[in-house]
Specification:
By secondary structure, the chain is mostly helical. The chain has six helices and three strands; from the N terminus they run αααβααββα. It has one domain: Arc Repressor Mutant, subunit A, CATH 1.10.10.10.
Length: 131
């Protein structure tokens, strides 16, 4: 998979939504976002669970920042990362239209399948023998 940072010249013309989805395409970056959803974190804390180099983590953070998914700031000797909701909201809004489409499609499919099923058989009433 090509890293969005490595192909930055090609990605300069991407719209914000495409940039967001390109950043979300990588599982390491999604894991970083999941961690940041619990609160701000230092770069070292974000790097800890991954078996990759510091420069590789920095590249992932740069991609996330370029996509507007995180912000980074220097606080004394710490580099602190923070999740930024607007870019995620943009992706969610785009997906919502398709979610509604598929839910409506599944509802129509359910109605169709139920209409095709024969009605349940009635139990035959047993007549009592009269003496």
């Amino acid at each position: 998979m090509l890293d969005i940072h490595l192909t930055e010249a090609l990605n300069d013309g991407l719209d914000p939504l495409s940039t967001t989805f390109a950043a979300l395409a990588d599982p390491t970056r999604r894991a970083i976002l999941a961690r940041l959803s619990r609160g701000d974190a230092h770069v070292g804390d974000l790097a800890e669970p991954f078996d990759i180099s510091g420069p590789a983590i920095s590249r992932h953070l740069r991609v996330l920042e370029h996509a507007g998914l995180i912000s980074r700031e220097v606080n004394a000797q710490w580099r602190v990362c923070r999740l930024r909701a607007p870019a995620l909201q943009l992706a969610n809004d785009w997906l919502q239209d398709y979610r509604e489409y598929w839910e409506q499609s599944l509802d129509r499919l359910t109605e169709y399948v139920e209409a095709q099923q024969p009605p349940p058989p009635r139990k035959a009433l047993r007549r009592r023998k009269t003496r």
